[in-house]
Amino acid sequence: MHSEKKKPARVREVLHAYGNAALKYRWSFTGAVIAAITIEVAGVVAPLFLRQFIDLLSLGAPTEAVVHGIFIALIFFTVTNLAGWTGQRLRLFVVNKLEAKAMVDLYQQSFDYLIGHSHEFFISNFTGTLTRRVTRYARAFEQVFDTIVFNFLPAFLFAVGIVGVLSLRSPLLGAGLFMWTIVFVYLQFIMMLKRQPLRIARTEQDSRVTGFLSDDVLNHSTVTTFAAAKLESSRFAETINGWYVALRRVWDADLWIYGIQGLLAVAIEFALLAGTILLWQKGLVTVGDFVLIQIYVLGLFNRIWNIGQNLRQLYDAFADAAEMLDIMNLPHGIQDDTGATQLDATKGGITFNNVRFEYHDSHAVLDNFNLIVQPHEKVALIGSSGAGKTTIAKLLLRLYDVTSGTISIDEQDISKVTQDSLRKAIAFVPQEPMLFHRSLMDNIRYGRQEATDEEVIEAAKQAHCHEFISQYKEGFQTLVGERGVKLSGGERQRVAIARAILKNAPILVLDEATSSLDSESEKLIQDALLHLMKGKTVIAIAHRLSTVMNMDRLIVMEKGKVILTGTHEELLAHESNLYKKLWEIQAGGFINTN
């Protein structure tokens, strides 16, 4: 099992991934930066004209020269503000375009990597948690990019601009504002670092809540039939309490940050205005400078005050993105070999050669397992639960890799061919088929995506799906519900068989393909399967021996090894063996009661 420990948000790694996504659209990215510069330059320059405007008004006598100067200052003030307005419109346009495209790319990138993980990975993780991680990874880009382009970059540019302007008026004021800005940002950064473990803990608890909800919703019928609603409610209460504790710790830390931030803001405003008064007494600044400084200070407050909140949001986004990066940095459990070739399965012969397979707990399911299935031969795997029958099917499909030994199809080691070509050569009908929440047409066509509607309908008829599909008002366009819950077990099984018929692969694997069918449906499906199996190599896993008694060869397994092989008649002729025992139990019980 792949266990995933929570890791700190890897800022550099997240920025690298998101940077690559943004720089894919270089013109939009460049436009966003130019727009941000334009906005902040306008924000610094416009108050200079306003200062000039006020100084001229304070002269008292409205002479022609003064009035002319006032209108000139007003015109430049307006033009500068219009330039800032234009920059804002440009920034919104290019950022919206860039973010939408980048998020689509990130969704696709994370989905493609996630879906490539092994069967073991998916049965070891909550479905809800995985889907939320994909969503968070893509959407966190918007938060990160917005924070940088709309907050951090403008705050930096504005701070540099006003410090430069104030330094020209008074080096003391400029130096004081510069030092205060450095201290303010540094303290915010330190407080965020101290607080980040609390936010990661909250994110982890949030994921647990989501996973719990998903697990219970998917297993609602089990909760209901076992009258376990109160039990699940108490377990959910424990889970949500963990989230509550983590959330309160984060919020309490916020209170301290807001308090320190407010004190710093009061201190710098008092210091700057007090310093300006002293300079005014000496005739070094004008009334317009008071207005200029106040505008600058308010503008700086507006930008830097939000840095604390921006940092918190940014680190939230980093934590969200890091969860998906954990998955994307985890190597796929099953990978194509370097130089893997396309499988050529024209005959369909299968060979298991000295195969050993054990799970991560070192429990060996198969040990020195050998089996040869000739091209077009139909064999059935029989044995009690835990004998390794289903494991053989999973190894053939390469849902797992063998611990040692080899599996070959037409003398080609399946570990040396591409997974896609291997699985395209095998049609698999599982014991419990899972369907997409899509139409019946789409679910059956999944066997061969390029199939026409007529071919899908023909496959449905051969699998005896057409009988129940024709009863639906929307026919083949009927939605089957999540996991196919709107269909009965037998109907889902027949849809799975229709997929296999449509796929028409040279190798067919049946994992108790008629287990969910009533007696009448079973007979119809048996006829369809006999037609389907013609000219194919077939491995059928069976518990109900009546369904496989006419196969070319029956293989009896116990504890991961072949203990007996032969036809139905040959195995019954043996004295006291597992097959004969199973047959007598079923013949005397289930079969005779049908």
Brief overview:
The chain has 594 residues and is an alpha/beta fold. Helix content is 64%, strand content 10%.
Which assembly state applies to the chains in this document? single chain
The biggest beta sheet is recorded as:
6 strands, mixed
Biggest sheet strand order reads 6-7-8-3-9-10
In terms of structural class, how would the helical and strand content be classed? alpha/beta
Strand and helix order: HHHHHHHHHEEEHEEHEHHHHEHEEEHHH
Low-confidence stretches: 1-9, 589-594
Q: Count of DSSP helices?
A: 19
Overall, the morphology is elongated
Helix content, binned percent: 55-70%
What is the strand content? 5-15%
What's the arrangement of secondary structure elements?
Elements: H1 11-23, H2 26-57, H3 64-115, H4 119-123, H5 127-169, H6 171-218, H7 220-225, H8 229-281, H9 287-329, E1 350-358, E2 364-373, E3 378-382, H10 389-396, E4 404-409, E5 412-413, H11 419-424, E6 426-429, H12 440-445, H13 453-462, H14 466-469, H15 489-503, E7 507-511, H16 519-533, E8 537-542, E9 553-558, E10 561-566, H17 568-573, H18 578-588, H19 590-593
Parallel strand pairs: 3-8, 3-9, 6-7, 7-8
Antiparallel strand pairs: 1-2, 1-4, 4-5, 9-10
Helix pairs in contact: 2-3, 2-5, 2-9, 3-5, 5-6, 5-9, 6-8, 6-9, 8-9, 13-15, 15-16
